[in-house]
Amino acid sequence: MAKRRLVLTFPPEVVERPVVAMLVKDYDIITNILRAEIHEGEIGRMLVELDGQAKRIREAVKHLEELGVEVEDAITDIELDDTECISCGACTAVCLPGALKVEGPGWELELDKQRCILCGLCVDACPLQLITVKF
């Protein structure tokens, strides 16, 4: 079994198609929608976690791309400037999935990109504006 976290960007003509249902039905992939911003007739974006056989996930991604869906690995969509970070922890207070933590022994801020759902709450919470999220 494999797991991939992806950001899917749908062109307007694909937004109204049952793409997620197709992933489940045609490719036997468990699809967990972590975040979505979709409006009828407009570009839509969705953060999904796909769970299934690696080969089937690759086939599904290829099919999505053939439909015109842009597929990107989600871990590239959040950035923390840790060279300027003072590890104040303000961002950790709003991070519901626990992707941002300040723990000992060094008490430095750590970002676990695998846990991040790209909600963006940390961006506003950071007093130094050192976190950027593309979604």
Structure description:
This protein is of the alpha+beta class and 135 residues long. It is built from four helices and eight strands. It has two domains: 2-76, ACT domain (Alpha-Beta Plaits); 81-133, Alpha-Beta Plaits, CATH 3.30.70.20.
Structure summarized in a few sentences:
By secondary structure, this protein is of the alpha+beta class.
Structural class: alpha+beta
User: Secondary-structure element sequence?
Assistant: EHHEEHEEEEHE
**What fraction of the residues are assigned to beta strands by DSSP?**
25-35%
| CATH topology type of the largest domain | Alpha-Beta Plaits
CATH class of the largest domain: Alpha Beta
Count of domains: 2
Q: Using the 3D structure, state the CATH architecture of the largest domain.
A: 2-Layer Sandwich
Which descriptors apply to this entry?
135 residues, alpha+beta, Alpha-Beta Plaits, 2 domains, 4-stranded antiparallel β-sheet, two-stranded antiparallel ribbon, elongated
Compile the SSE list and pairings.
Blueprint: E1 2-10, H1 12-15, H2 19-27, E2 30-37, E3 44-52, H3 54-67, E4 70-73, E5 78-80, E6 100-103, E7 108-111, H4 121-125, E8 131-133
Antiparallel strand pairs: 1-3, 1-4, 2-3, 5-8, 6-7
Helix pairs in contact: 2-3
